[in-house]
Design a protein that fits this description.
Elements: H1 2-20, E1 25-29, E2 33-35, E3 40-46, E4 51-54, E5 61-76, E6 79-92, E7 96-100, E8 104-107, E9 110-113, E10 117-122, H2 134-141, E11 142-148, E12 159-167, E13 172-180, E14 187-192, E15 200-204, E16 207-221, E17 225-229, E18 233-245, E19 251-261, E20 265-269, E21 286-294, E22 298-299, E23 305-315, E24 331-333, E25 337-345, E26 348-361, E27 365-369, E28 373-378, E29 383-388, E30 392-396, H3 445-473, H4 475-496, H5 501-520, H6 529-538, H7 543-558, H8 566-586
Parallel strand pairs: 2-10, 22-30
Antiparallel strand pairs: 1-3, 3-6, 4-8, 5-6, 7-10, 8-9, 11-12, 12-16, 13-18, 14-16, 15-16, 17-20, 18-19, 21-23, 23-26, 24-26, 25-26, 27-30, 28-29
Length: 588
């Protein structure tokens, strides 16, 4: 009997041990039904520590907090109690019935999964205005505002958007992170450096607030009609006062997470008026000056001078072309060099753009550079204005003379016929006879070469055939060579498409992709920015070169939606060729 008693006791102890050692991994939510303006907390709990925790995707929610991790480890009556939790705070994106999928974790070499949880999101509910509720206090004391300088600009007129975060003096902010960044579709945009965050004092709805300027952006609308500016959204950790006091009598603070949004802004872009629009108008909007200048007005033939067509002022300087210079056909003129000296601040683009022509006269005489015009639209006066350059005369002092009318500005100038001193050739009456009988071919060096050449070509043909067989068997290498050939093909296509923005940037983007496939031995599915940077870094490519490559890829994406000049396309093409060359040199 005693033996049976001991065996029973042992079985009970083993069963208790097995039950206590059972691994648990489960998910719990704060509520299964909530309003679209409420937040959901979900906890993933386990009673043993594990590795490789993978949360669900939360595709129907926005993560506004977490993961927060808490661990509890205690011993009671010799029994260890362990508890670990991963917590997330979620905001629903829309109404509906959603399922939060499984989370996974590895514990003792086994993979454990949570049970999917169903959550119903209803329409927004009224949140009680409880002055003691930290959530309510956070809603009332912190605001994100987007200030737009003008809501009805003209096409290509500059406007600014300034994002300010207003915080009540009684409220504190620990930190924040961007949830949604604004995208400026149909705008040319540039962010302005805020030069550090500085707390300033101001008013919001008539009350005193502290505020930070988070971001400044200059926009130039590229389409007419109603255009939307998507909102900036932040997740902020807020410290709000409570009615509780600490042991010293000081007011205690409560920490809550709050999502704030600047709201969607709509801009009504007006088209430029058709009345009074000059024929030579190319889209310049702002306030400009215009001039044509030369480095010299007197020189000798075969010397060179530079003529510069320059536009200065405030407006959309990077979004239009400088007028072309018209010159007499007797002057040799090279393609202009485009220069930009433009800075952008809250007033828009300011500075100058210029095309510089190199001119080489060939003949002595006087050559006029005629006046050319430049037209722009002034949004302040809402009128078109036309500026004209002064006529400049180039005086070529020394050099050969030409029969062309030097002072003419027409391209139909006529030149004198220059007579050759040997214009009359006499008929030769004496001839030199030579023998037409050739020497014998037999036993000549050419005979022996032709006889032995087939025998020498046999081993060479065998070697070539083996090399070709090895090359055909190298499937992986052939794929790399094919990608390299395609990269060269598309880069040549990009060069042919210079001047055609859409075709050029599509061809250049394909060329860069095929080059990466050939160089890094990767497939199209692996062409992600992070994977590319990682592989280039492992190959020893310098960070500056990788930055240049990423900038080129970014330009290919952005250039399709912004005005681009032929000069900019040429610069992007040369930069792409240079960067590919650098990667070839640096990669191991």
């Amino acid at each position: 009997m005693k033996l049976i008693k001991y065996i029973s006791l042992l079985i009970i102890l083993l069963a208790t041990s097995l039950v206590s050692a059972q691994i648990k991994f489960e998910a719990k939510v704060s509520k299964n039904r909530l309003g679209v303006n409420e937040r959901l907390r979900i906890d993933f709990e386990m009673n043993q520590d594990g590795d490789n925790f993978n949360p669900p995707s939360f595709s129907d929610f926005t993560i506004i907090g977490g993961p927060n991790q808490s661990v509890s480890n205690s011993w009671i009556n010799g029994v260890r109690s362990y508890h670990k939790t991963y917590s997330y705070f979620l905001a629903p994106k829309k109404q509906g019935n959603f399922t939060i999928s499984q989370a996974t974790i590895n514990i003792d070499g086994e993979t454990y999964k949570t049970t999917p949880i169903k959550v119903e999101v209803t329409s927004a509910i009224e949140i009680p205005k409880d002055p003691d509720d930290p959530e309510y206090l956070a809603n009332e004391t912190i605001h994100l505002v987007a200030e737009v300088s003008k809501t009805n600009p003209y096409l290509n007129e500059a406007i600014t958007v300034v994002y300010k975060l207003y915080v009540s003096p009684t409220t504190g902010v620990d930190n924040w992170r961007e949830i949604d960044s604004p995208r400026y579709n149909d705008f040319w945009s540039q962010n302005i450096d805020t030069q550090g965050l500085k707390v300033q004092m101001g008013t919001y709805n008539g009350e005193e607030y502290r505020y930070l300027v988070l971001r400044k952006t200059v926009l130039y609308p590229q389409k007419t009609g109603k255009l939307d500016i998507e909102p900036l959204s932040l997740d902020i950790a807020v410290q709000v006062p409570t009615n509780r006091r600490n042991i010293f009598g000081g007011q205690m603070m409560a920490r809550v997470n709050k999502t704030v949004s600047a709201g969607n802004k709509t801009i009504n872009v007006r088209p430029l008026p058709e009345t009074g629009k000059p024929i030579d108008f190319t889209g310049a909007v702002g306030n400009f000056n215009f001039k044509v200048s030369t480095t010299k007005t007197q020189l000798d033939a075969s010397e060179s001078l530079q003529a510069t067509v320059e536009v200065t002022g405030n407006g959309n300087l990077k979004l239009f072309n400088v007028p072309k210079l018209t010159l007499p056909s007797s002057l040799e003129v090279y393609e202009p060099e485009h220069n930009e000296n433009v800075k952008t601040d809250l007033a828009g683009m300011q500075g100058s753009i210029a095309d510089t022509y190199t001119i080489v006269p060939q003949y002595k005489g006087k050559y006029p550079i005629p006046s050319i015009s430049f037209s722009y639209f002034d949004p302040k006066t809402e009128t078109y204005k036309t500026l004209n350059s002064n006529e400049i005369v180039i005086d070529v002092l020394e050099g050969p003379t030409s029969g062309s009318v030097a002072n003419s500005n027409s391209g139909n100038t006529k030149q004198q016929v220059v007579l050759n001193k040997d214009q009359f050739a006499f008929i030769k009456t004496k001839t030199n006879f030579s023998s037409t009988t050739s020497s014998y071919f037999f036993k000549t060096p050419l005979f022996w070469s032709a006889l032995l050449l087939p025998f020498l070509a046999i081993p060479l043909a065998i070697v070539i055939r083996r090399k070709k067989a090895d090359r055909d068997a190298d499937v992986y290498g052939n794929r790399i060579r094919m990608a390299d050939k395609l990269a060269k093909k598309y880069l040549s296509n990009a060069k042919k498409a210079l001047g055609k923005k859409e075709e050029f940037y599509i061809a250049m983007e394909k060329a860069l992709h095929h080059y990466l496939k050939a160089k890094l031995h990767i497939e199209t599915s692996d062409l992600s920015k992070d994977k590319i940077n990682k592989l280039l870094l492992e190959r020893g490519v310098e960070a500056e070169t990788m930055t240049d490559f990423n900038n080129i890829m970014l330009n290919c994406d952005l250039a399709r939606y912004t005005p681009i000049t032929a000069v900019t396309m040429q610069e992007d093409y040369e930069k792409a060729a240079k960067t590919i060359s650098l990667i070839d040199k640096q990669a191991r």
